[in-house]
């Protein structure tokens, strides 16, 4: 009597690790592309591959050759098309490394709690300005970046390079100020520039009441490691955008915690 060999079902520790890493990779990719145009692009590529398989099986030589020529530059096309997603993916990996996740413990061990307290002092003028603009329903878009990208911001902004100040922020976003349209960019504990034109998000799932400020704040958080604070001109409501996602109805206590963590 023949016995059935189940050797192919043997799973090693390496196989389990391999499966876990692939699952994590799929999860990260899904988080990056959901609710974006990248989903439609992937569906389009999948349809082209299905068509290529069908026409190849039907021996339609001319159409097969055309599709194969198109697919031969697939890797380059993927890099060009998914450049924002690839950049966000690499930023996400950098942010989730062991050292980044445990920087609070490292800071505690090496005495950087003082840095955290100093950070709260630097955040206070921003919070105070947001309180004032919320009360007066002054529309505002404040973007926080770790590293100021001259290529991205300087070409479309008015350079300021000033100390962070409540009055300066209020003056910039005052309705009749020539700089009130666009975003203020804060980096290196300075107001680096104002009246910045930012890329709008391609997300078509956003609520219809979101205006250009919200779409610009979400857009810049999708393509860079920036976070954005958005104050609605219509309602005075404060929103917080990070990694392409937006948090609505943010209280001042929540805003202080978020900025202390991300700024």
UniProtKB/TrEMBL annotation:
EC code: 2.7.7.85
Organism superkingdom: Bacteria
Any one Pfam family match given in the protein's UniProt record, by short name: DAC
Keywords linked to the UniProt accession: ATP-binding, Cell membrane, Membrane, Nucleotide-binding, Nucleotidyltransferase, Transferase, Transmembrane, Transmembrane helix
Keyword NADP: no
InterPro entries, alphabetized: C-di-AMP_synthase, CdaA, CdaA_N, DisA, DNA_integrity_DisA_N_sf, DNA_integrity_scan_DisA_N
Biological processes annotated in GO: cAMP biosynthetic process
Catalytic function, reaction form: 2 ATP = 3',3'-c-di-AMP + 2 diphosphate
Self-association and partners: Probably a homodimer.
NCBIfam families: diadenylate cyclase CdaA (TIGR00159)
Primary role: Catalyzes the condensation of 2 ATP molecules into cyclic di-AMP (c-di-AMP), a second messenger used to regulate differing processes in different bacteria.
Family: Belongs to the adenylate cyclase family. DacA/CdaA subfamily.
HAMAP family: DacA
Record-given protein name: Diadenylate cyclase
